[in-house]
Write a structure and sequence with these properties.
The protein has 82 residues and is an all-alpha fold. It has three helices and no strands.
Amino acid sequence: MGIEIKDLFHYADEYVKECDWKDMALLKTCLCSLGIVIGTLVPKQKKKPVFIITSLVFLATYIPIMFKFVRSVLASKDKLFQ
């Protein structure tokens, strides 16, 4: 009787529904700090490939997040001015 991945996704969805922007800011700050700690542990000779990979991952995740955010802002403005 273990927890399946789909259960973890469900729990995460429920948690996010309860969060406000301050909770999300804390979560993002925590993850950023963890990334910095991990980055300091990367050996000097491996930093360039790690930087390239993490930069690509950042762009691949940041662009859709910002697209969704801007779309949400525009939809909110439309509702506000109706």
